[in-house]
Design a protein that fits this description.
It is a single chain. The protein is an alpha+beta fold. It has 4 helices and 5 strands. The strands form 2 sheets. Strands 3-4-5 form a 3-stranded antiparallel beta sheet. It has a two-stranded antiparallel ribbon with strand order 1-2. The protein is globular, with a radius of gyration of 15 Å. The N and C termini lie far apart (about 30 Å).
Length: about 90
């Protein structure tokens, strides 16, 4: 995604994120995973598939910290979050 700033400078979305949040995302074990529903389970659904993928991820801890800090929902770092609050682990 490209954004045009007021100064007519084009930047990529990753340029707008702090480096600590964007530097390692290309290494995420879930990157490109076609099973999208597994990352946003209903409260009654098991999320073992997503937890299994996260288990071997090199950025697992940073991913969970990002979710908590930025208010994400879904499975991040092997835990399920709801608006930044961990609800299942």
């Amino acid at each position: 995604m490209t954004v045009e700033l007021e100064t007519s400078t084009l930047v990529d979305l990753t340029d707008l994120l702090p480096l600590s949040d964007s530097r390692e995302w290309h290494r995420a074990a879930c990157r490109g995973d076609p099973n999208h529903e597994a990352w946003f389970p209903y409260p009654s659904q098991d999320f073992e598939y997503a937890r299994g993928v996260c288990a071997g991820c090199p950025i697992r801890d940073a991913c969970g910290e990002f979710a908590a800090r930025t208010g994400q929902s879904g499975v991040w770092g092997g835990h399920e979050f709801d608006r930044g609050r961990m609800i299942r682990f």
